[in-house]
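Changelog excerpt

This revision adds worked examples to the README so contributors can see how folded entries look when concatenated. The first example is reproduced verbatim below.
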Amino acid sequence: MTTHLEQAYALDAADPLARFRARFVNAEPDLIYLDGNSLGRLPHDSAMLAHDLTARQWGERLIRSWNEGWFTLPERVGGKLAQLLGAQTDEVIVADSTSVNLFKLAVAALRHQRGRTRILTDDLNFPSDVYILQGIVEMLDAGHRLEIIRSEDGVHGPVEALLAALDEDVALVVLSHTVFKSGYLYDMAAVTAAIHAAGALVLWDLSHSVGSAPVELNAADADLAIGCTYKYVNGGPGAPAFLYVRRDLQPLLRNPISGWMGQHNPFDFTLEYAAELGLRHFLTGTPAVLSLALIEPGVDLLLEASMNALRAKSIRQSEYLIALWEEMLAPLGYMLKSPRQAEQRGSHISLGHAEGWRINQALIRDLNVLPDFRAPDNIRLGIAPIYTTFTDVYTAAEQMRRAVEERIYARYSDQRAAVT
């Protein structure tokens, strides 16, 4: 009789993407790394590039490196990201952080949509996005109001309620394409079409989608998008984010944080701001060259693997994990808090448990599994299909079983750490 472990080995042997695992640093071969991809693994190519950036480009070439590739990094890396997002190369640029990009695009959209005052989001959106929107409402002081549509089960996006809330007063809808806790995946095309029918604009946060789930911005006629690069893109801790503006909207929207990198002729040093044509006017200050450049190797790996192959493997692995949950973990009190339907799910699975925080600590400290935790009880397991193996998935499920059956979690208190 085939054991679970033998089955996992067989699935790995048949995996057409298995070769990519060796392209990443794996300093602890026995560590099962499923951290919800708040930080992806380090590509070997990034480590080599980091040396070249400091030793040669900075150390030897000095200021000359700005004219040898640094100045155009935001467009070049953005153009490659666009290929992962179903967008044109001149519709994506790398700049700032996800929050700053959200601020810039949301303010620009609201000013463009004068006369409309309602902003819609849902209670599954990443809280930081909501905080930014709340701050914008207060700052603009123009009668806008933010409305948060509630999910009935905390797992699935409240699509029907969102669509029912649309009217001629809605200016902007802001949603996470893949929800950060449950992994619920919105139907971007259908939701965008409904929002457009009401005359509103939509801004998608792609942070938990890019590099792991299908994104077709042009096919969906999406207006605006933002996202980070340190999760499935493996761009490194605190790596700059990206923003997308559909080509026809670019001349209509104005960057509210105008700065010299978005100026038409920045080195003329005139005192009158004139926005650069195209998407570059959404740049503000000098880009963080070292961290921006280190995004590129991770993007290149994803393009080499292809999003279709990555998505297919992600679905196979998440289906495998759900099957293991059903057999091994559900009887021990673990609850599936992600959608069952593959087409409604990104690349992470959340399993809830009454002892979720303590189990999470046991996994990290005793059982060599590194997931993350999202309140109130979610153990979030991020599957990065470019390097996660089926053996990783099985081992994580087995260790979660042990954590409860052997009461290993009981060694730990309920006191939360600062970073979860």
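The second example, added in the same revision:
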Amino acid sequence: MPLHPALAELPSPNDKRIAARLTADALRQVRGGHPWVFDRGIESLSHEGAPGDLAVVFDRNRKFTAIGLFDPRSPIRIRIVHEGKPRTIDADHWADRLAAATERRRPLLQRGDTSGYRLVHGENDGFGGLVVDRYDATLVAKLYSEAWLPHLADIVPLLAAQPDVDRVVLRVNRQLAQLATGQRLDRLTVVGDPPTEPVLFTELGLTFQADVLEGQKTGHFLDQRENRAAVAAQATGRRVLDVFSCTGGFAVHAAAAGAALVHVVDQSEPALATARVNFDLNIDRTGSTTWRATAGDAFEVMAGLIQAGDRYDIVVIDPPSFASRQDRIEAARASYRRLTRLGLDLLVPGGLLVQASCSSRVTAETFFADIDRELASHPVAVESIEQTGHAIDHPISFPEGAYLKAAFVRTAYPGPV
């Protein structure tokens, strides 16, 4: 398939490598498999390079340690793509990494009921600063680093060559979109015909739509698939509240499992409209469920429901990241604790609270400890607690890469049933 002409205008990789000498601590981290070298971890560079230049890390004896993509405008100055023995970073290297990523996801692909999944999970698959999500025949590659621009000429053909792919769309993060090059690439269909409507895909046998051009992230949040299935397994005949529902993933799975009612809450009315579309796409399985939607601030809506006496068998709370910066961590933790209290107050006796966090700066240990703290101070009795993490298509290879965690808290009945 022909590539978009805009790709030919991008810079080519520089043949001249940057020799990088790191601090002792940074070198130890790289040898341990960490994919990031921060600016403060660099002692010296042979020369200042351009975004996407290859930087070779040498040890104190000038022996090869690793190689990565140089990004002079990012605090993550080098994104390691290979460590150990020397290797040429070219199309063959990326093809090998892509093949390994595909093999890692084989158990999911063999199910046959899911055509929406993450094909490349950034650093964790050897592609630091690049994610690729698949929605049936459409691939969406999102760039989080300018360092990828010179390498797209190698990457995009590999993506287009994946089995049964008709289209490849590029998305870029906010910082990259501010650059002139990024503006030309964002929401650009670089292979195939541009989509004229949302793309349909399947998740565990259910049909969803993804707006791959204008939707959040790449068009859908794929990382909660297994948690949605876990909620659905307990939703038959239940009243389910889906807070921060976005496009209704949890609610649609619960409805398809026979929930009596699903109530979706989100501040975005367009997101709620998409959630209703997803509900209707599966009407043969969701038709017996009552649908309710409320647009508004989640904290205010939950407080209002409590005051009105509404109660649910299952409450799902899946907020966006509250800790976008280091100085927001304590505020984020306070928000999570407040949500825990509100969620517990909305449960019937014996109900299930499912609370998630996608804030990588709030560790799983801290998140679960804060939930425990709220449970200890709340009058509700707890029967069981289960903790979940990342799905198979969101593998984790280094500590900072772990962002998703969820707690399933089953409350106890006050007395004999």
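Reviewer comment on example two: The chain has 13 helices and 20 strands. The two ends are 63 Å apart (CA to CA).
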